[in-house]
Amino acid sequence: MRYLILSLLAVLAAPAWAADDGDFWYLQTSVYTRHFNPDPEHNNHQDLLGLEYNRADGVLAGGATFRNSFSQRSNYAYLGKRFDSDSHPVYLKLTGGLLQGYRGEYRDKIPLNRFGVAPAIIPSVGVRFGPLGSELVLLGNSAAMINLGLRL
């Protein structure tokens, strides 16, 4: 279903395909997750849906909803910076924000989650092909995730 939605958005965003510079919205979803120390109770299907606003200078703000490693609905609201390569369609991205959703027996699985909300810093590296993009996201020392996205 998510691939159908991304395909439809790609068709609707066709006029933006040629535009490479300027501000843009970025819609993304997770397609693969791998925990570094797998545990039978780990969820590797995050069902992530994220939307971020990227300024031409690389400053960005966004939010995402997803199922965490323990299948609990979680949310991440963040600010960050995208560092584009001048010569290749690749970039580095660093975001920092607040992570909510680790509850009950899993509350202490992320640091500083005393009140149900914890700070998070998430680095990633991305590549883009016109309006389409993919990112490899490092989730602390726990997991790595691959996201696919579309510039709107």
Automatic annotation (TrEMBL):
Keywords: Signal. Residues 1-18 form the signal peptide. This is sn-glycerol-3-phosphate transporter.
